[in-house]
Amino acid sequence: MKERTYVGAIDQGTTGTRFIVFDHGGQPVANAYETHEQIYPEPGWVEHDPEEIWDNTTAVIRRALDDAGIDASQLAAIGITNQRETTVVWDRESGTPVYNAIVWQDRRTTDRIEALEREGKDAWIRETTGLEPDAYFAATKAEWLLENADPIKLQRMRPEDVRDRAEEGELCFGTVDSWLIYKLTGEHVTDVTNASRTMLFDIHELAWDDDLLAEFDVPRAMLPEVRPSSDDERYGTTDPDGFLGAEVPVAGALGDQQAALFGQTCFDAGDAKNTYGTGSFMLMNTGEEAVTSENGLLTTVGFQRSGEPAQYALEGSIFITGAAIEWLEDLTLIDDPAESEALARSVDSTDGVYVVPAFTGLGAPHWDQRARGTIVGMTRGTRREHVVRATLESIAYQTRDVAEAMTEDSGIELTDLRVDGGAVKNNFLCQLQADVVGTEIVRPEVDETTALGAAYAAGLAVDYWESLEGLRENWHVDREFEPDRADDVEERYGRWQEAVERSLDWARDEE
């Protein structure tokens, strides 16, 4: 009898690392998760320890396989999905990071971005990379690391040696996918979707851009090789003498939001999804055309299969949504995320309260790095239920901001929006989202679509799955939420926009 095989997916996110094993029907058969420390050295700075992330990755892979009684040799391939812009620099020979990973949420390079804007370089960057210049992306993080890496982590290197070693190719730069591929296979590789989030990559030529590398003083010698998201030639294989004890192809990688697009089988132009995680990220497939946004959206690479043109996407990046629910927990307004739904339902409205969760600035379509979290409309009668409901409503309003920009840019009216991520378990939020955006919200049966997308990419590369059509047959609806437009939706959305105005340009340095 032939041994049953599976595909594994490493889902390395902002708050933790998950490993899920999927069968041929796209169903999860093993799952393990581990959180890692969030490091805040200074206000606005966010870091992770790359070595902790790697240790957790090996731990969740072992635990998932052990719990399900699956041997590593039964894995036909491994795919990787990751928090995208988070930046790591490490020693090529030893594999030791020179500093903590700088997380996508980190704002330490805001001044550098504002200098670029004053110099009039924002249009050039936008045209080449599809990105709005922002501290969110990896370029200024890499620049900062090369100039400021803490010598304590440099293995007796002097700080002034860091740039010299980078120019000699002795140091590696990459987003978290590159770090994990290197640790798994010894190869220094990234995929086109993650490369497209660095602000160093020409999304039209699908190549590192020399002028951008010069602008940010990032040596080409430290860059990873850029490969398709689903790579028939494989990125590499795991070491049979390593922690897995088996030689498993690592054959697919996608940034987390592109992975969710792929996992939601949004393979055709006009297909759209929204993922509710720490932030929310809405992507619409635009096919082989890189649509330029006139409304504050990003143009990004959606995915690429071996031997095929890249598929592009428009993206609306909302920095804080699920993290706003965590903030409610931090303030002890709720005991756990599930409580938010019951509290929100317990009142008929927010009683005029609006929460703008701009804790790390505002992303699309506003792009204000100095915006900060704001609560407006409170009275002596405001209760925690109103604040909780207003926080959930802020998620729906931010998504409408993006949806309207996306429709304007693409000329495509949304007929439905596929949703995934932890927050979509909240039926109140899903219905609210349908009502506010005015479109059908579709929730799939398998909600771990980010990991599923990475598994699909790797599995296609090794012929575990034969075609995109076969993947579409795996996708099944759990529930659909039809819009019920209340008379006051437009009025409330207008008041939301006024609240956003009050949050803008708040975090100014004191003179």
Write the layout of secondary structure elements.
Layout: E1 6-12, E2 16-22, E3 28-35, E4 47-48, H1 50-68, E5 75-82, E6 87-91, E7 101-102, H2 110-118, H3 122-129, H4 138-148, H5 161-167, E8 171-175, H6 176-185, E9 189-191, H7 192-195, E10 201-202, E11 207-208, H8 210-216, E12 225-227, E13 236-237, E14 249-255, H9 256-263, E15 272-276, E16 280-287, E17 298-303, E18 311-318, H10 322-330, H11 339-345, E19 354-356, E20 374-376, H12 384-410, E21 416-420, H13 427-437, E22 440-444, H14 449-461, H15 468-474, E23 477-481, H16 489-503
**How much beta, percentage-wise?**
15-25%
Overall geometry:
globular
Structural class estimated from helices and strands: alpha+beta
- Specify the number of helices: 16
The major β-sheet equals: 7 strands, mixed
Percentage of residues assigned to helices: 25-40%
Strand order of the largest sheet: 17-18-16-15-21-22-23
Q: What's the Cα radius of gyration?
A: 22 Å
Distance between the termini: 75 Å
Query: How many β-strand runs?
Result: 23
Q: How confident overall, as mean pLDDT?
A: 91
Uncertain spans: none
Characterise this structure:
This protein has 16 helices and 23 strands. It is an alpha+beta fold. Residues 6-263 form the Carbohydrate kinase FGGY N-terminal domain.
Describe the structure concisely for a colleague:
With about 500 residues, the chain is α+β, with helices and mostly antiparallel strands. The chain has helices at about 50-70, 110-120, 120-130, 140-150, 160-165, 175-185, 190-195, 210-215, 255-265, 320-330, 340-345, 385-410, 425-435, 450-460, 470-475, 490-505, and strands spanning about 5-10, 15-20, 30-35, 45-50, 75-80, 85-90, 100, 170-175, 190, 200, 205-210, 225, 235, 250-255, 270-275, 280-285, 300-305, 310-320, 355, 375, 415-420, 440-445, 475-480. β15 (about 270-275) and β16 (about 280-285) form a beta hairpin.
